[in-house]
Design goal:
By secondary structure, the chain is an all-alpha fold. It has two domains: about 160 residues, no CATH class; about 80 residues, no CATH class. It is about 85% helix and about 0% strand. The protein has ten helices and no strands.
Length: about 240
């Protein structure tokens, strides 16, 4: 029977860090190769380098808000399943609440609470396995059906680039609207983050960007940070 300290020593051992680093390095290489491919495609499409650089900055800044949320959850997850596995899972998936929930399901399947009394090596292994299965489904579906979905999208657009833009925009609005709706329903800090983030974006685009156009590429990242800050203030005032 392993004690709490025993399983955490194994979870944070040098061998686990080494094995997990392989996956993270592969993910990093994929990101680098993707950026190289994007720049190469931009040259072939005769897109000005200024537009490419601006797009890269917008994406980089917009990623700060979500990354902060992932980092906060990762700190909590590290205390339960160890640093290497938390680092690996959130490096390749990035859905922090999902990973935490799935790890909890794995612990409950072993009859214990995540990181609680009785959570030992066996329960941790079940949490790891559950997290791996949860992520495997997305990878399989993406690998098998992405090419077909691209053909379906082209067929639905009928070769009309304007309609394709509208279709892609509608899909994005539906996805993010659904995600925000779930957070608003939860109430409290979650709702504050969604509402004040949206209001901040509208305020920046309508009032600030016209006076300072260069701020447009930073607007989304700023709105995310403002939304999270408002959620933290609300939770602190509510004593949560």
């Amino acid at each position: 029977m392993f004690l709490l300290d025993d399983y955490l020593k194994i979870a944070n051992s040098g061998m686990i860090w080494l094995l997990c680093s392989v996956t993270v390095v592969i993910a990093l290489l994929q990101a680098v190769l993707y950026m190289r491919m994007a720049r190469k495609t931009a040259l072939e499409a005769n897109i000005p380098q200024e537009v490419v650089n601006t797009s890269f900055r917008i994406g980089l800044i917009s990623a700060i808000g979500p990354a902060m949320g992932v980092f906060i959850v990762m700190v909590g997850l590290m205390a339960a399943i160890g640093g290497p596995m938390a680092w690996t899972r959130l490096s390749i998936i990035g859905a922090a609440p999902t990973e935490l929930t799935v790890a909890t399901f794995g612990a409950e399947a072993s009859g214990v609470e995540l990181g609680g009394a009785g959570y030992g090596l066996t329960a941790m292994a079940v949490s790891w396995f559950t997290m791996a299965l949860n992520g495997a489904g997305w990878l399989v579906v993406t690998g098998l059906f992405t090419p077909s979905l691209e053909k379906l999208r082209e067929k639905m657009s009928g070769g009309d680039t304007k309609w394709l833009i509208v279709l892609s925009g509608a899909c994005s609005l539906g996805i993010f609207g659904y995600l925000n709706n779930n957070e608003i329903i939860k109430g409290g800090g979650n709702a504050f983050a969604s509402v004040f983030g949206a209001l901040s974006m509208v305020f920046l685009v309508k009032c600030i960007v016209p006076k300072c156009p260069k701020l447009m590429e930073y607007a989304l990242g700023i709105a995310m940070i403002v939304g999270m800050a408002c959620a933290v203030v609300f939770d602190v005032m509510a004593g949560k």
